[in-house]
Structure to design on (107 residues):
C-alpha cells in the first residue's frame, strides 16, 4: 500500500487557484536555496523536485514576510487533471528514492 512509502517527517502542501503553497518550514526543510522546481505526477501523487540553478523549471516565489513560498503551476496542474478551482491541503513527505517532495492527492 501507498502508506508504506510514507515514512519520516510529514508536512502539508496546499493547492489553490492553480498554485502550490509551501510553508516556510517545508521550504527550508526540503528546498533551501532552491529557486525552481519540477512538478510531476506519479500515480495519485504529485512530485515536487528541486532543480538547481540553470536547470529550468517553475520558480519558487516568496509569498510573505514569514518566508512561505508559492509555485504558480496552473498549466502544469491542469495537464495533470487538477483544475484551477481545486482547493486542497494534502499530506506530503520527502521521498528519497524520487528525490522529491511527494504529496498524496487522493486517499
Amino acid at each position: 500500500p501507498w502508506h508504506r512509502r510514507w515514512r519520516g517527517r510529514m508536512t502539508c502542501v496546499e493547492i489553490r487557484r492553480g498554485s502550490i503553497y509551501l510553508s516556510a518550514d517545508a521550504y527550508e526543510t526540503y528546498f533551501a536555496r532552491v529557486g525552481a522546481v519540477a512538478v510531476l505526477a506519479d500515480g495519485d501523487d504529485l512530485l515536487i523536485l528541486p532543480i538547481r540553478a540553470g536547470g529550468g523549471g517553475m520558480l519558487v516565489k516568496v509569498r510573505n514576510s514569514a518566508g512561505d513560498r508559492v509555485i504558480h503551476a496552473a498549466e502544469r496542474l491542469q495537464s495533470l487533471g487538477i483544475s484551477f478551482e481545486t482547493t486542497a491541503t494534502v499530506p506530503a513527505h520527502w521521498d528519497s528514492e524520487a528525490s522529491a517532495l511527494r504529496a498524496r492527492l487522493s486517499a
User: Anything to note?
Assistant: Residues 1-6 have pLDDT under 50 and may be disordered. The first strand starts at residue 10 and ends at 16.
